[in-house]
Amino acid sequence: MRAVAITFIFLLLLPFQAQAQVVELTLSCEYERTYDPTTSLEQELSGNFSAVVRMTPPAAATMVATSVGCFDYDGSFDELEVYGDCERTISNIKTKKSLKINRINGQFEETSLIGKHFNIHYGHCVVKKKLF
Question: Which of 120, 106, 85 is nearest to 25 (CA)?
Answer without folding.
Answer: 106
